[in-house]
Write a structure and sequence with these properties.
It is built from five helices and five strands. The chain is of the alpha/beta class and 158 residues long. The chain has a five-stranded mixed beta sheet with strand order 3-2-1-4-5, sandwiched between helices.
């Protein structure tokens, strides 16, 4: 029982990387629910790294999950390349794996969530980024859970 619990534990950090801010989300240890943690105002790589490293250490993060803005045709544009470069450098420096999630509609979804709460997205940009990061991470957690259950089903059929 203890072995299966340790395998199911996950501590992931979801990042919505922009040129001005990085929205950050985390998940509970079971990997069921993602929630927004903070929004980091981008300054320099070193300063951004310090803030993220503090969260990584505090939350014992095992993996970074980063949203990539794919083009409508599924290709990777200039902004996506910049984000990948930042994320790869961050992951290498922190010694963590990184996985990417398609974030095409996450900011729109986050803005819609704020509007539903009668809050203005334009006055709450940091909150939009944080909510977008939680959507990115939740998508990754849901996909991970689905893959795990499919793997278990396939193993039981062998």
């Amino acid at each position: 029982m203890v072995e299966s619990q340790s395998r199911s534990f996950v501590s992931a950090l979801g990042l919505d990387v922009g040129s001005k801010r990085v929205g950050v989300a985390g998940c509970d240890g079971t990997g069921l629910i993602a929630t927004g943690i903070t929004t980091i105002q981008r300054k320099s790589f070193v300063e951004d790294l310090q803030e993220i490293q503090g969260l990584v250490e505090k939350r014992r993060v095992q993996i970074l999950v980063v949203g990539i803005p794919y083009s409508r045709d599924g290709s990777i544009g200039e902004q996506a390349r910049r984000i990948q470069k930042f994320a790869n450098r961050l992951a290498k420096t922190l010694g963590l794996p990184v996985e990417y999630v398609d974030e095409r509609l996450t900011s729109f979804q986050a803005e819609q969530m704020l509007l539903a709460e009668n809050r203005s997205p334009s006055y709450n940009r940091g909150l939009v980024d944080r909510k977008a990061a939680s959507i990115i991470l939740q998508q990754w957690l849901d996909d991970r859970r689905l893959r795990t259950s499919q793997d278990l089903t396939n193993q039981s059929q062998l």
